[in-house]
Design a protein that fits this description.
about 80% helix; mainly alpha; 4 helices; about 120 residues; elongated
Length: about 120
């Protein structure tokens, strides 16, 4: 009976992750959702069959879940830091170019405002 419950949780996780992926069009939330459901299914299976093999599978699933979620979190934060480092407007780009020119010893264009 618990094996069928674990299978049902796995199927529901696949469906929920697929729906979240289609709806959100991002990778991180569906993967996190799927790994949560898979961990729940493995824990149910561990309750049904408490053996060393099942315990090993449970530990591997938990480790995989942590690695995937932390890896995706790192990718998202790296993208955010890259996008925040880029100038947002032409004015900011001109100011950044002027700062770069000043740092390399070149003259600033007349009429260009220094960045404050």
């Amino acid at each position: 009976m618990l094996h069928q419950a674990a299978l049902l949780v796995t199927l529901l996780g696949l469906i929920a992750a697929a729906c979240a992926g289609v709806r959100l069009r991002r990778v991180r939330p569906p993967v996190a959702l799927l790994t949560d459901f898979l961990l729940a299914a493995v824990l149910i299976r561990l309750a049904a069959d408490p053996s060393w093999t099942t315990l090993t599978i449970t530990a591997a699933t938990a480790a995989l879940r942590m690695l995937l979620n932390s890896g995706l979190r790192a990718v998202v934060s790296a993208r955010r830091s890259d996008s925040s480092a880029a100038p947002q407007s032409e004015e900011e780009a001109a100011a950044a170019a002027a700062e770069l020119g000043r740092a390399s010893g070149q003259q600033q264009e007349p009429g260009a405002r220094p960045r404050t």
